[in-house]
Every structure is written in structure tokens, then in C-alpha cells.
Design goal:
nine-stranded mixed beta sheet, globular, 42% strand
């Protein structure tokens, strides 16, 4: 447990089952969790090009919100990973910048988010191993801006996420440079 990780600080946890709790990550902070089934709790926000690398394992990150237009990133690494966004009434739209994350839970209330193409691409413009994302709502009255994504109506969506949780989904897709990304969006989320 720590207060803040900031100013270019690098925290490396090593292999095994690890848990890290902090208030916020900012100013180029980097967290490397190492292989294993890890949990990261950031009670407030990530900002200023901060990065959390969950590495291999089925990991969980609980994050208040991203506090910048872009730059900060959560990378799930190998395994099936979940990002719980717990912020409520965050004000404005917050980019969800992720790589290798399969499920995003909007667990707060009344928050607004953006998810565009660049938010899910690697820094070199290529894609990671995840081409299908599930965005669920366990909070209420959350909104996500999907500018640039197209609603797909001629395909039947799955009825559960990779963890077996049941949701009614709409499908959205976007294709660029022969790469197609697919979003399964819980129908209870405002678009």
C-alpha cells in the first residue's frame, strides 16, 4: 500500500500473486506487476503518461478513472484481464486507454468515457492480441462515446463475457489498415 506513485517512479512487484494499492499514479509512474494473478487498486486516477503493466496472469485493476486526454495506459499482458472503472461523476469524458484488456466494467455512477481507435492500439499503431472487448456496467447512468465505431446488427452478440457474466450486448466494430476491432457493449450503457 502506498499513497502516490509519481515523478517517473518505477515499482516492480515480481512473480507471484501480488496486490498493490495506491491513491494515484501520475507524472510518468510505471508499475510492473510481474507474472501471476495480480490485483492493482488505484483509488483515484492515472495521469501524465503513467503506465500499469499487469503482465501474464488473469489480473484485475480497480481504477477510479484516467485523468488525461491520452497518454496513461493499462496493459493487461497475457491472460484474461478486467479493468473496473470505479469513478463516479468524473466530469467531462475520460479516455479508456488499454492494451490486452478483455473486459472493462463501468462500476461507478454517472461517469462519461471515450473509447476511440488510438485508445486500444499499441504505441506503434499496431494492435495487441485482443481484438474483442467487453464493456459492462455494474454501476448506473454511465455513458461512453463511441465516435468512429459502427453498430453491427447482422450478427448475434454473445450472451456472456469471458468470465461467464451474463449481459445483453450490442456489437460495435471499427476497421483500419486491415485490422478489425470488436466491442461488445452492455445495452444498459448510454452511447
Amino acid at each position: 500500500t502506498c499513497n502516490n506513485i509519481e515523478g517517473g517512479t518505477v515499482v516492480s512487484m515480481g512473480e507471484g500473486v501480488d496486490e498493490l494499492t495506491c491513491n494515484r499514479g501520475q507524472g510518468g509512474a510505471v508499475v510492473n506487476m510481474g507474472d501471476g494473478i495480480d490485483t492493482v487498486n488505484v483509488t483515484r486516477f492515472l495521469s501524465g503518461d503513467s503506465t500499469i503493466n499487469l503482465d501474464a496472469g488473469d489480473d484485475t485493476i480497480n481504477l477510479g478513472y484516467f485523468n488525461d486526454g491520452a497518454g496513461s495506459l493499462v496493459d493487461g499482458g497475457d491472460g484474461t484481464d478486467i479493468l473496473n472503472l470505479t469513478g463516479s461523476n468524473t466530469g467531462g469524458s475520460n479516455d479508456i486507454s488499454i492494451n490486452n484488456i478483455e473486459v472493462v466494467q463501468l462500476a461507478g455512477n454517472g461517469a462519461s468515457y471515450d473509447l476511440d481507435w488510438n485508445d486500444i492500439m499499441l504505441s506503434d499503431g499496431t494492435n495487441d492480441d485482443v481484438t474483442e472487448f467487453y464493456i459492462n456496467q455494474t454501476g448506473s447512468n454511465n455513458r461512453i462515446d463511441l465516435s468512429g465505431w459502427t453498430l453491427v446488427t447482422d450478427v448475434t452478440p454473445p450472451d456472456s463475457d469471458p468470465f461467464g457474466e451474463t449481459y445483453a450486448y450490442n456489437i460495435y466494430e471499427q476497421t483500419k489498415d486491415s485490422i478489425t476491432e470488436t466491442l461488445y457493449i452492455d445495452q444498459n450503457i448510454d452511447i
